[in-house]
């Protein structure tokens, strides 16, 4: 099979590309001209340099593809919604348009559990209605992207499957995990209420890759969307202290109540907005959701329809993850 992967120079897309090659699949990647492609070149990925906003280029890439895995996205916890919409919705529209009429067997759209309302979740499943408006541009754009992808499935028969992973961790994440390690070094990490016992929606990159191939292989996945986590209860404390212990760093000790953290965050974001800040303030609602809300989501639909049984337990996955970070950030 020929896989076309967007976002292959990133954390998730790179692992999926690697797994495809390990399965002797042909892999093409649409990459920006400025991206670091050394690892992809070493592995023999066919590279097409250009932008997702170029309809002619995108169409040439997906022609004769069997599977498209769309991982490219603008991520972040700050910035104008219009910038996220341009990257995550309008570029997706170009890609889906190019896939109309193609003999694709699957179009995997990588979404996020961040599409759900920013509240406490206790076993929330895919029947939960999504909010019409999110506070941050990233979450808002991911909701709109899902709606667009499903519309192309319903109206044009593009064989879309939407995957909603939680917080993805594992070797080679150069965005979130390094920030957590640095925060622990600076004693800047805080549990928010409940002494860090609220759930975190973790999913190891190996488990996510497993789910991608299940969605590619099983016909009943087309037109569906799936929550994805490690499938076990992982508290914020358990996750963060695994990192701290592996790196020889102190555990967080300050635990402000949720109401106080919310108030400080609201003031912080308001001041940053008034100043026209280009980068996220230290206290923002995306980080508050990560550290302060109970994020427990049901993966029963993925278990039932995809046969998803996470191969890596959280403890085993964290050993592999932290072995990599000790070598690169120790």
Describe the structure.
It is built from twelve helices and eleven strands. It is of the alpha/beta class. The chain has a domain at 2-174 and 201-231 and 296-310: 3-Layer(aba) Sandwich (Rossmann fold), CATH 3.40.50. Strands 3-2-1-4-5-7-10 form a seven-stranded parallel beta sheet, sandwiched between helices. A two-stranded parallel ribbon has the order 6-11. Strand 4, helix 4 and strand 5 form a beta-alpha-beta unit.
CATH class of the domain at 2-174 and 201-231 and 296-310: Alpha Beta
CATH superfamily of the domain at 2-174 and 201-231 and 296-310: NAD(P)-binding Rossmann-like Domain
What Rg do the Cα atoms give? 20 Å
CATH topology of the domain at 2-174 and 201-231 and 296-310, anyone? Rossmann fold
Measured as a percent range, the helix fraction is: 40-55%
Query: Could you give the count of β-strands?
Result: 11
Order of helices and strands: EHEHEHEHEEHEEHEHEHHHEHH
- Broad shape: globular
Distance between the termini: 40 Å
User: What kind of sheet is the major sheet?
Assistant: 7 strands, parallel
Q: How would you describe this structure in keywords?
A:
seven-stranded parallel β-sheet, alpha/beta, 330 residues, two-stranded parallel ribbon, 12 helices, Rossmann fold
